[in-house]
């Protein structure tokens, strides 16, 4: 439940086995590739100078980026050939790729399979194209079949031209309203796809004007009219149908032959696809590797706990140098972030990444978000029955591959727990025993509990923020800033003052608290000059204590005080939604009583629960996420990190 520790791994080896090394790294699936050429150029690719590695060190002088040495071998096009023939059913299988691989044999196999099947595919495509054209002609001549006249007489008219096409119903009305302006004879012959089909006959002299009018009506010409079809439309349709059936028989035979070939090469093609996919990935990785005449230089981030494993995998290569460099102290190096959480918290990493990736130096916010999110959702949506439905729906969604399914199932468990505390089962509060209280009967208690929960979470947020700033070596801000120790003390003292005023419980006297609050405000007002004075890095910087400084600082402190109030009061919504959850069911219960029918009332109860689970559950989920993002993350979550993305197949 933390940000996993990473370390930079640098490798130097012989060029002749670079592809095998990359293959092992891809199958290892725990190394994020870094640009080795950039590491060398910035003097971060360090090596010990010994007699055994002089050649490797001298290679730095002639090193080139892998982009310049990228192979022109088009593995993508070869794998596309296989997918064109066999479809997209391939899956990458690591077991297939663990042994020795003969790339040349694989390419020969792909070419052989493609050549054997490609000719049949070309003929099949030709037949299918012909069938499509015939189908278009059948459709057109079916519309003309009512005309008992041979088509060669219509096609060879000396003074008239005809066309057939469709108009939408709206444009048909426009056509009817403008018949007097139409320079053609328009005959309705049928309907097609919710449109009306018309034959338009116009004089050749007026063809341009007719086309202009038809264009304004969005007239869509139907394809399929052929001058070589000279018989009556009904005879043409019969002849075309026979021709289509003949072609379809040919297609069926070809498809059977192709299926036989596919079955014969099924396993071989799957192996070929995996090999091609592997080499496609290998050559992508090679773009980030640096090369000299004899050596390659590789850089990548790897979890510290896996050092021994990667060393064991790569130990089989002769004359290879593997170094692990700790770049954590270099401010110019951005270390990727790999979150490591247990099964309970891991699904909530989705919410973290929606907001941003934590910096490598930050404390992993996932456990705190997970616990607080589950607690707040359950508090606001406590019901044993409805929670059980959420649990079932979440598990169903998880099995269907829906990313949020695991979160929903956990929220269901939290809702069930608070449902037991509230004694609520599908909205009814008389079926099960109440373990704590009934929200609607204890409004003040619920609202006070909401504020207490909010204050507790905000205080924890402050502590997280202080730890994060300290880990980032931002020592001055960890003490003096609004989200540091000063901000925490100010917030805590204000809470104690409010507690004393409303309850009379004075843990610390008001004058002492007032003095501490005043001191904290003064520190926040003069934070920048104080930091500038203390910091050696900013020793020469000047902060003029002029009117603009005081105005800016005053409004900044005023905003801090206002945010303290608003952030705390925002948590009242926790209690409000807990009450709203009960009140919404009471509304449906009243409707059920108004129906006053056994079946009717049951339907109202069912629909009410569906509405509450669906709509209110969504709203509560969004509201909790808002509290996490705006009221808590602002205290401690910086973001701006780079997600750890290991190279894999």
UniProtKB/TrEMBL annotation:
Keywords of this entry: Coiled coil, Ion transport, Membrane, Transmembrane, Transmembrane helix, Transport
Principal localisation: membrane
Cellular component aspect of the GO annotation: proton-transporting V-type ATPase, V0 domain; vacuolar proton-transporting V-type ATPase complex
Organism superkingdom: Bacteria
Keyword flag Oxidoreductase: no
Matches recorded under InterPro entries: V-ATPase_116kDa_su
Molecular functions (GO terms): ATPase binding; proton-transporting ATPase activity, rotational mechanism
Subcellular location field: Membrane
Membrane topology recorded in Swiss-Prot or TrEMBL: Multi-pass membrane protein
Transmembrane segment boundaries: 373-395, 407-426, 446-467, 479-502, 508-526, 571-591, 603-625
Coiled coil location: 237-271
Protein family according to the UniProt entry: Belongs to the V-ATPase 116 kDa subunit family.
PANTHER family for the chain: V-TYPE PROTON ATPASE SUBUNIT A (PTHR11629:SF63), VACUOLAR PROTON ATPASES (PTHR11629)
Protein name as it appears in the record: ATPase
